[in-house]
Amino acid sequence: MSQNSFPRKEHVEILIQRISSRLRSLDVPLEIVESGEDRFHCRYRFNAKDCAGLQPEELMIHFQIAERLLAGGADQELNRLVDSFARKLIRTQGSNFVE
């Protein structure tokens, strides 16, 4: 891994954009924010902003997924992770989100 591969501002930007888009398509009305980095595993951390007292759930995305998205790759891998994140939120929070 090169010195400039992780972390990168472009990774966070595209991941927030695509995660937010996927959540909207699932009718899960949450704003996603970056919550830090796991430098040991080269992953970005995201969670929902302002969950009104709900227990926060964390979504961790490896930097290589962002690299593939920046290179024009498909969203399938990211979508699977976001779908799992959304299902977990719905199940654990007892929310009224449409699955």
Helix percentage = 40-55%
Biggest sheet features: 3 strands, antiparallel
Measured by DSSP, the beta-strand proportion falls in 15-25%
Return the average pLDDT rounded to an integer.
84
What's the helix-strand series?
HEEEHH
How many H/I helices? 3
> Structural class given helices, strands, pairing?
alpha+beta
**What value does the Rg take, in angstroms?**
13 Å
Unreliable sequence segments: none
Shape: globular
Total DSSP E strands = 3
Q: Span from first to last CA?
A: 37 Å
Strand order of the largest sheet: 1-2-3
Describe the overall structure.
The chain is globular. A 3-stranded antiparallel sheet has the order 1-2-3. A hairpin with a 4-residue loop joins strand 1 (31-38) and strand 2. It is built from 3 helices and 3 strands, in the order H-E-E-E-H-H. It has helices at 9-25, 63-70, 76-93; strands at 31-38, 43-49, 58-62. Helix content is 43%, strand content 20%. It is of the alpha+beta class and 99 residues long. The model has no long low-confidence stretch (mean pLDDT 84). The chain starts with 8 loop residues before the first helix and ends in a 6-residue tail after the last helix.
